[in-house]
Predict the structure of DDE Tnp4 domain-containing protein.
Amino acid sequence: MADAGVNGRVSDEEVIAVTEFGHRLEEAALNLPEPEPIVHNGDRMPFVFVADDAFGTTENLLKPYGGDKLDHNQRLFNYRLSRARQVSENAFGILSSRFLVFRSPIQLAPEKAATTTIASCYLHNFLRKKSKQYLRLDSVNQEDVNHEIHPGDWREQQHRIESLSTCRSRNIGMVARCVRDSFREYFCAQR
């Protein structure tokens, strides 16, 4: 699913709330698989989307722990969740390396910018499936043997992408908190 055209002055959480994806996520209508154990004979865990701290946590939207006074396991969880988020960041890196319109502010009317964005997403998905030459490894984040991340070249561009503002509401439901804590326990048990 892709959506484009929301005013950039609203928060990420407010953007997702007005999208078809956001509506389906809130209504549990995304047709996600039933929760499954991550490890043999383990607790059943819901399928989740990873997000950054600009979003609110829900049962199916996992975000990092906030604040300065995090314990070791919370910091480890945040690190590993950040590593998982690199998949979507790399997708944008690939998209922007192939469609140069995303390397600077888009100089189109809002409706045309939205159409261009959605068309680029469709083309990106098509080319990822059909073309072996589409992916340029220098456009994505790479991890070396020492586990250091080397950013993709899209991050080095003159015009950087600005994060949308963070929504002030941070009310985490009990179920969402338990899901995040369960994933933290799982991430911290892995070596």
Observations:
- The two ends are 34 Å apart (CA to CA).
- Residues 72-98 form the longest helix (27 residues).
- Helices lie at 12-17, 20-26, 72-98, 110-130, 174-189.
- The first strand starts at residue 36 and ends at 37.
